[in-house]
Amino acid sequence: MATDTAKSGIWTEHVDANGRKFYFNMVHGRSYWELPDELLVQVKRPAIDELRDWDPSFRHERDSEEARRRREEVLLHAAANARATNVAPGMVALQERMAQAAQRKKKETELKQQRATEEKQKSEDATNEYLKMHTDKDTDTTGGKWLVR
């Protein structure tokens, strides 16, 4: 590693998928497996890891065997679903949200149609009542409630 150029910048420590530590220089955008001792003091842990260590409830849960087992079950279930559908787990969630949105839109459309039908029926009832009063000979000839002057 060229320590002259790499000494500047913000260093963060990370762990890869195999559990190995590596160091990332945020200024240069480069990763290194090993760092000289003088640079190790500059290494900062990611903020999320710092917060997890600070929060006592998270630390207790992290140490809990039950919590670890639950996380593994959730991950296995998500992986099995993803394999079964041949899509990424994020895509499954997207498809579920799209299906829910389609159902909401269908319900809204049905409600609009129902309201339109009810309004049409009310309008027809009012018209029929008016016509019935004019054609019915047994009603009051003074005009009743429909008197217009």
The backbone outline, from C-alpha atoms, is elongated
DSSP helix count? 6
How many separate domains make up the residues? 2
What radius of gyration results from the CA coordinates? Answer: 36 Å
**SS-derived structural category:** alpha+beta
Tell me what the CATH architecture of the largest domain is. Single Sheet
How would a crystallographer describe the biggest sheet? 4 strands, mixed
SS elements, strand count = 4
Question: CATH topology of the largest domain, anyone?
Answer: Ubiquitin Ligase Nedd4, Chain: W
Relative helix content: 55-70%
Strand content: 5-15%
Residue windows where pLDDT falls under 50 for at least 5 positions = none
Helices and strands, in N-to-C order? HEEEHEHHHH
What oligomerization state is this entry in? single chain
**Spatial strand order of the main sheet:** 3-2-1-4
| CATH hierarchy class name of the largest domain | Mainly Beta
Please, what is the average pLDDT? 71
For the termini, the CA-CA separation is: 101 Å
Tags for this model:
about 150 residues, alpha+beta, single chain
Summarize the structure.
The chain has 6 helices and 4 strands; from the N terminus they run αβββαβαααα.
Layout of SSEs?
Blueprint: H1 3-6, E1 11-15, E2 21-25, E3 30-32, H2 37-40, E4 43-44, H3 47-54, H4 56-63, H5 65-85, H6 89-135
Parallel strand pairs: 1-4
Antiparallel strand pairs: 1-2, 2-3
Q: Could you please describe the fold and organization of this structure?
A:
The protein has helices spanning 3-6, 37-40, 47-54, 56-63, 65-85, 89-135, and strands at residues 11-15, 21-25, 30-32, 43-44. The chain is α+β, with helices and mostly antiparallel strands. It folds into two domains: 3-59, Ubiquitin Ligase Nedd4, Chain: W, CATH 2.20.70.10; 64-119. It has six helices and four strands, in the order H-E-E-E-H-E-H-H-H-H. The radius of gyration is 36 Å and the shape is elongated. This is WW domain-containing protein. Residues 98-149 are annotated as: Disordered. Residues 11-38 form the WW domain. InterPro entries: WW_dom, WW_dom_sf.
